[in-house]
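Hi P.,

Sorry for the delay on this. The queue was packed all week, but I finally got your sequence through. Input first:
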Amino acid sequence: MALFEINNLTKRFGGLIAVDNLSFSIKKGEIFSIIGPNGAGKSTVFNCINGLYKPEEGSIQFKGENLIGQRPDQVAKMGIARTFQNLELFAHMTTIDNLLLGRHLHMKANLGQILGLNFRRSKAAKEEITHRRKVEEIIDFLELESARDQYVSNLPYGKQKLVELGRALALEPELILLDEPAAGLNQEEREEMVFWIQDIRDQLGVTVLLIEHNMQLVKGISDRILAISFGKKLTEGTPAEVLNHEEVIKAYLGEVV
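Then the structure:
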């Protein structure tokens, strides 16, 4: 059974059909990419998955459970994390504090417990140690030690992208949605991002669904690719099959990759 499955998904904005009867599925452990020109509906698909948009038709299932109608926090609790095209970080907080924010859905202690009786303070303190230990593991995994206590605003853009990736991993997801993870990165940083994404799958066991415009990255990292245009599926298959498909070349690439 597929880990994640979309069937006949349709999302409209007034008279515009942003996603048009789209279907695909992802197996556990895959790196699955969605490609398409600007305005093809890729980010709309992500927004439907994590509960920002409610589609008019179709189903979205994760581990057999329907996601439609779930709030973003409920989707996250089910084990789906996401990064965004535009960085959604707290620039005037440190790297470690940004990563700790990614643990909030796992936190049981509230302000009353922290400020209450000694026993409750002790319980909250033990929980904080657990969360900090997990965050330190992510810092080590992404080699962010030098950025650990720096304000995010002082970090170069490539490091900021890793902090956002780390914050998503702090949720301990089973499926991670990466929205243009290589956007704005130089060649060296893009190559490093490839390794991080592969390690996320291979070492952490997280299934990856990504949107990306850099075709060399997509070609080198993907198990399967879905190409869409105007919200409709053009084709789906291996990188070689999709990137050399006549309709994909016509709609998006302009040349054989």
